[in-house]
Amino acid sequence: MGNNSNPQLVLPMLKPSRFKRICVFCGSSPGNKPTYQLAAIQLGNQLITGEKIGEVRTVSGMHQRKAEMARQADAFIALPGGYGTLEELLEVITWAQLGIHDKPIGLLNVEGYYNSLLCFIDKAVEEGFITPSAHHIIVSAPTAHELMSKLEDYVPKHNGVAPKLSWEMEQQLGYTAIPEIGR
């Protein structure tokens, strides 16, 4: 009782992030659980540094939009979401597997939201559809703080099958042109 000291919260010293820009994939609705929105807010608090946030650019279509986001990002994070979030997530995972980039990809696995996807990936590795080294393309954590820590420590372990590919391949391959369908 004679101790008048107030309890203090001791926070670890934050080292500067290696990331300048992180691309965040998320649903367009808040979902049914308040924890999804809370996790998004916590992630935002982890990412906001007082610098300019976001940027608007005109692009010719969805493919160019996604390629530009991926080109500009230093890392990717998926929050709980639906088909659009899953599609964007799987595309950057595939690009990593192909060696187009080696940027960290994180799942904010709020209340186990992504457990089924992670089990699917485990099964695909077990059945030989995904190489064991490509299994490590994704990092997952239940909290924003833990996920950011894992992303900061991420070192690619996979071997891309096409390491010489670049973001400019879309232009070289003519993705922006309308393809002709042969009969």
UniProtKB/TrEMBL annotation:
Kindly indicate whether the keyword Signal belongs to this entry.
no
UniProt-recorded name of the protein = Cytokinin riboside 5'-monophosphate phosphoribohydrolase
Q: What is the organism field in this record?
A: Nicotiana tabacum (Common tobacco)
Entry-linked NCBIfam families: Rossman fold protein, TIGR00730 family
- A Pfam family per the record: Lysine_decarbox
Q: Which reaction(s) does the protein catalyse, per the Swiss-Prot or TrEMBL entry?
A: 9-ribosyl-trans-zeatin 5'-phosphate + H2O = trans-zeatin + D-ribose 5-phosphate; N(6)-(dimethylallyl)adenosine 5'-phosphate + H2O = N(6)-dimethylallyladenine + D-ribose 5-phosphate
Gene Ontology CC: cytosol; nucleus
Enzyme kind, highest EC tier: hydrolase
User: Which InterPro entries does the record match to this protein?
Assistant: LOG, LOG_fam
Keywords noted in UniProt: Cytokinin biosynthesis, Hydrolase
**One Gene Ontology term of the molecular function aspect:** cytokinin riboside 5'-monophosphate phosphoribohydrolase activity
Q: Give EC number(s), comma-separated.
A: 3.2.2.n1
Look up the record and give one Gene Ontology term from the biological process aspect.
cytokinin biosynthetic process
The text of the family note is: Belongs to the LOG family.
Q: What does this protein do?
A: Cytokinin-activating enzyme working in the direct activation pathway. Phosphoribohydrolase that converts inactive cytokinin nucleotides to the biologically active free-base forms.
- Top-rank taxon: Eukaryota
